[in-house]
Amino acid sequence: MPGPGYAHFGAEERRNLLEVVDSWLATSDAHSRPPGVDAQVRGLERELTARFASPHCLAVNSGTSALLAALAALGIGPGDEVIVPGYLYTASVSAVVFAGATPVFAEIDESLTLDPADVLARITPRTKALMPIHMLGAPCDLAALGQIADDHGLFLLEDAAQACGATYQGRPVGTFGQAGAFSTNIFKVITGGDGGFLLTPDERVFQRAYSFHHHGWFPYGQETGDGDLLFGLNLRMNEFTAAVARAQLARLDAILDRNRSLARALSAAIPARDGLRPRLLHDADGDCATLLVYLFDDAASADAVAKELGTRTLLHSPKHYYGGLPELAALMAGDGRPSPFRRPPDRARHGYRAGALPQTDAVLARSLALTVGLTDTYLGADFGVTPRSTPEDVEAVADRFRTAVNGVLGR
Ligand SMILES: *Cc1c(COP(=O)(O)O)cnc(C)c1O
To answer: I need a labelling partner for 211 at 20 to 30 A (CA). Which of 62, 145, 202, 311 fits?
Structure first.
């Protein structure tokens, strides 16, 4: 079972999907487009702007596309630096690389998200944006990061791919900066099979993102309009994905409720003890609770418990750790092969190799995630409960975890 949205699939997803198929079948004139050809996509965008109280929403074909469109819309490109955390998903970095900009890594802290103090130390005259990532469904320290962005005239581009529905001080993540990017792939909180969307408060950012995602057309396919005429690509969401994503969006609160009540039950059954503490949460009420993360005092204990439970620590999550992206290290070391389109930057200021961010390495090596609604081997989350688990299942998982911890740390 990949993500929580997937586990909540039901009749509404089927009904919406068949509605699209039926409406297309009902188009008897072979020369005309089906009526309301983007009805589901537009409907989803409208529902998302309402759900997130965001002025503009653009549905796209993936979370990666949402990031790329946001970077294009903000005009971030060659010569620009974007600060990203060392714990990430590879797409966050590849979007920056494909925009032609340079990713600059900063440390995470025990929240597993950007450490604001370290962000400050990485700002240069080339820095254009901060890209905080709400990793594992929990909000970053948006107060501190927003302040830094304001003070230094930087864009705040939130990667909220893993955190649809998360809030910080009552407000949805993804709505704090100039743009927020979300994913609806099958591992995310809600899913349309694939897909994603971008939120922005800024009409010009929306117009440019629209143009970029749809071959340079003005919003809603107009030939003329206000704003910038851009070269674009095809990053559009399709009707089938939107139809399913709408059904999922209607379930978002139920999905979050279920995750949160499971996480509460699971953590209540894992009493506090020396040598182990929960991940730091910047807003515990706003966590999507797709995973429950514990930090050990040392990496050896975390590894031993992980081994006992048949899982791994977060340091060993392929594609989620800056030091485990050999393609990036090669690119920045001056080996142009991993970059399909361009030469690597002249000045390789960053090694992009394990060890470059000692605090991040230490935190990830000590962190173990128990799954609550999300099962993803590549996140190191193979052990835990699912949305369908019973109270007995939760107790059994907590018991196995407690036993493994006690076995390693002693009673
Ligand atoms: C999943 C994810 C993405 C990319 O989303 P896709 O829809 O798979 O392209 C980007 N960033 C983060 C943090 C993610 O977890």
So the answer is: 145
User: What's the Cα-to-Cα distance from 296 to each of 160, 204, 302, 410, rounded to whole Å?
Assistant: 27, 46, 6, 13
Closest atom, ligand 1, to C-alpha of 194: 7
Q: Average per-residue pLDDT in the chain?
A: 93
Contact indicator for 251, 5 with CB cutoff of 8 Å: yes
The residue with tokens 């929990």 is 138
Atom of ligand 1 nearest to the CA of 183: 7
Q: Are 239 and 34 in contact (CB under 8 A)?
A: no
Burial class (CB in 10 A: 0-12, 13-18, 19+), 349: exposed
Best CA proximity match to 47, nearest among 248, 289, 255, 188 = 248
Buried b (16+ CB within 10 A) or exposed e, 234-251: ebbbbbbbbbbbbbbbeb
pLDDT tens readout for residues 262-299: 999 999 999 989 999 999 999 999 999 999 999 999 99
Pocket test for ligand 1, best of 6, 67, 87, 162 (most atoms within 8 A of CB): 162
| Average pLDDT rounded to a whole number, residues 309-316 | 94
Q: What is the pTM of this model?
A: 0.97
